[in-house]
Amino acid sequence: MFWKDIPELTYELNKVRSLIKKSVNVKSNRLTLPVMDFINRDAKMLRPGLLILSARIFLPEDKLPESVYRYAASIELLHMASLVHDDIIDNAEFRRGLVSINHGYGVKDAILVGDLLFCAAAELIYDSTSDSDASVILHGLKHLITAESEELDDAELFRKGQLLGLFGRRKYIRRVIRKTATLFVAAMHIGAREVCKDEFMQQTMRRIGYDIGVSFQMMDDILDIISKKELMGKSSLSDLREGVVGYPFVLAVNSGNKKDEDKAISLFRKALSGGLFSSAHRRALVDMLVPYCDLARNEVLSILNRAKKHFVFLPKNKWTVVLLDTIDSLANRLN
Amino acid sequence: MFWKDIPELTYELNKVRSLIKKSVNVKSNRLTLPVMDFINRDAKMLRPGLLILSARIFLPEDKLPESVYRYAASIELLHMASLVHDDIIDNAEFRRGLVSINHGYGVKDAILVGDLLFCAAAELIYDSTSDSDASVILHGLKHLITAESEELDDAELFRKGQLLGLFGRRKYIRRVIRKTATLFVAAMHIGAREVCKDEFMQQTMRRIGYDIGVSFQMMDDILDIISKKELMGKSSLSDLREGVVGYPFVLAVNSGNKKDEDKAISLFRKALSGGLFSSAHRRALVDMLVPYCDLARNEVLSILNRAKKHFVFLPKNKWTVVLLDTIDSLANRLN
Question: What highest taxon heads this organism's lineage (chains A, B) (predicted)?
Answer without folding.
Answer: Bacteria
